[in-house]
């Protein structure tokens, strides 16, 4: 079952003119947001925008800087903590292994 | 632990670089084969760069117990292993290099999948945080990886120039930058350690499903204990308050009777806590809607309706429970966004903007109502 969060909120952006079609974003994305187009220049495209969790893996690993996203933790308590301490939203905790999570 | 990784100023440290006069270099921080070694170390392996501990792939009872304790938040922040290079099986210059974090649970999840495989494990110093969270913080990151790879000379240990990183480390590592600074090519392996053997056999190729993060029933269930632990303190405060209330109401009642009444008064709240911190998280995809606070609110509402009917409460008390209990559940489930694997920062910010206010107003109205009722009763008595 594909689990999706709120619609039309993520800050993910792809500049196709910079994309070289290397496929790194497809490799690193944990939610299969991207695909490499079969035609039209074999560039990356955003297929499942609402699946994006803004982890920042794609932008970090995009050598041609075609991808941008405001990366951060999707963690309510982390956001509250960030507001209180005047820093970026931060989980400040260490849970889990394979698929699961951060705070909590 | 040795000089690196544990404390103070790491920049002046460079311990794994400086071979000690007596004996060869040890490739794990603070590891001394002559001294007491962890039970999961089977011996050592010699490489061109120094000695690496060889580890078992079978987990012992102590490892399982340690993971269980960490799930409940006991000693979770110190559940670490020393960073450095470890050996699995009998690796040689052609064996793959797998990169991991120094959270012991991450390390255990990796090594238990490697029975029959010869490999090197490069453990980064992530301050005891798992790969994904450490990548988000940047401690599982480009700089630490480059520092470790160049620090002791990984190029002398292996003949190839490939590093296999867990895919969930990608938010912290710029693969192209690692290659530029170390000469090693970064290959992102599967999300789950369990898929590693298949990934290696396939020549470092991941099937599409190996690249996707799941959030299964079990994934969610194992995360609920820590949610409950987080509620203990406020719950104790609430129990204390309820006891004081009971005391004010019947100052002459015997202690045990007051305790009994306090427990009874706590039941609806306990239900709301379980609804928000356990039931809603485990049933997450089956509850309609997308926002977490909404999902928790719904489950809390179901609980409060059941409770209100079961005690056939009068209308003010019923309204109080219906306003307060779902708000408690909604708040707790909103906090589960931090444990989930698919919520975005922008989404949670948006959810909090609307939900937090609504929850506070709802709970506030409930308490105003209750105060009004108490005041009314007091006036009636007067």
Low-pLDDT windows of residues of chain A: 93-104
Q: How far is it from the N-terminal to the C-terminal residue of chain B, by CA?
A: 69 Å
* Name of the CATH architecture of the largest domain in chain B: 3-Layer(aba) Sandwich
Largest sheet of chain B: 5 strands, mixed
User: What is the annotated CATH architecture of chain A?
Assistant: 2-Layer Sandwich
The CATH topology assignment of chain A is: Alpha-Beta Plaits
Helix-strand category of chain A: alpha+beta
- Strand tally of chain B is 7
H/I helix tally of chain A: 3
Short description:
The complex is a heterodimer of chains A (104) and B (382). Chain A is 18% helix and 10% strand. Chain A has helices at 24-28, 57-60, 76-85, and strands at residues 13-14, 34-36, 44-46, 67-68.
Q: How would you describe this structure to a colleague?
A:
The complex is a heterodimer of chains A (104) and B (382). The C terminus of chain A is likely disordered. The longest helix of chain A has 10 residues. Chain A is of the alpha+beta class and 104 residues long. Chain A is built from three helices and four strands, in the order βαββαβα. In chain A, the strands form two sheets. In chain A, strands 1-4 form a two-stranded antiparallel sheet. By secondary structure, chain B is an alpha/beta fold. Chain B folds into two domains: 199 residues, Rossmann fold (3-Layer(aba) Sandwich), CATH 3.40.50; 164 residues, no CATH class. Chain B contains 13 helices and seven strands. In chain B, helix 11 runs antiparallel to helix 12. The chains are: A alpha+beta (104), B alpha/beta (382). At the A-B interface, helix 1 and helix 3 of A face helix 2, helix 3, helix 9 and helix 13 of B.
